[in-house]
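Appendix B. Raw example, untouched.
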Amino acid sequence: ESYDAGQFLTGSLVHFTIAHTSAVDMKLVVETVGMRATVVILGAGGERVAVENNGAWDAADLQAALGAGYTVTDFDY
């Protein structure tokens, strides 16, 4: 078996880069993502998060759910 970047065990992950105009609140990020998917990996410093790839989140929807001041982009390897 082989695994590709972004793949976790037997399933794939969606990776996002998250920014805020002041500071990223990781508690808010985890709680928000957790409403629809499972957080699998948190990046050091809170700028990145990987979630199960169940189609629940895309960058635009997650950004809207996090609220004002947040910017969310897809992170590709």
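End of appendix B.
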